[in-house]
Amino acid sequence: MAVVAPTLSLERRLLREHPLVIACDEVGRGALAGPVAVGAVAADAAFSRRRVPEGLRDSKLIVETRRAGMAERVRAWVPAHAVGWASAAEVDEVGIIRALGLAAARAIEELRVQGVDIGDALVVLDGNHDYITPVAPVGRGVLPIIKADRDCASASAASVIAKVARDEHMSELDAEAPVYGWARNKGYASAEHRAAIEEHGLSGHHRASWSIAAAPTLF
Predict the structure, then answer these.
(1) Mind listing the domains of the chain with CATH numbers?
(2) How much is the average pLDDT of 190-197?
(3) Where do the annotations place a divalent metal cation binding (predicted)?
C-alpha cells in the first residue's frame, strides 16, 4: 500500500479562522526509560503556501538513517519550532498523561520565548485526547486529530523534530549506562533492554513506577 504524503490542506482551512496554528506531536510515550518529548511547530498563512519537503512523513514512517537529514530540512522549512521535555522522574511523579501535558506546555512556551504569539494560536494535537489544556490552557484551544502526524504536514514536521531530538538524547544517555543499549533501543522495551534490566536492575533514567518486568517487547 502506497504511503500518502502529508499536506497543508488542514492547516490552510484552519488558518482561515485562526491567525496561527501550532502542531504538536509526542515521542517516547511507551518507552521504559528516558523522557517524553513533544515537538511543536508554528504554522501561519505564509507558511501554509510553502511546498512540503519531499519525503516528509510521520517520523515512524521514515527510516532511521534518513530522519536526521529530514529533521534538518523541516527545521529550516517551518517558521518556528521547539521541543518540550518531561523527565522519567516526572512521569513517575504525575503519570504519563500529565507528563505529556507538561512537555507540550514547555514546547509551546519555548515558541513564545522565540516570539510566537501563542495567544492567537489554535493547537492541533496528534491523537484523540487533549492532554495539554488540563496543564496549561493555550490560545484558542486544542484540537486533537487522529493521525495528524500522518496527514498534516506541520504535525509530521513536529513528529520528526521531536523524534530526532529524543533519539539523540537517548544516545547521549547511553554513554552513561551502556549496558541498556539505549543508543539502539532508545529506551523502548526491546529484548536486549529487558534482559539488561533483569541483570542490572533499573537506572535513574527508568520509569520506576511502571510495571517494567511485565512490559511487552515493542520491537
Answers:
(1) 9-168 (3.30.420.10)
(2) 94
(3) 25-26, 126
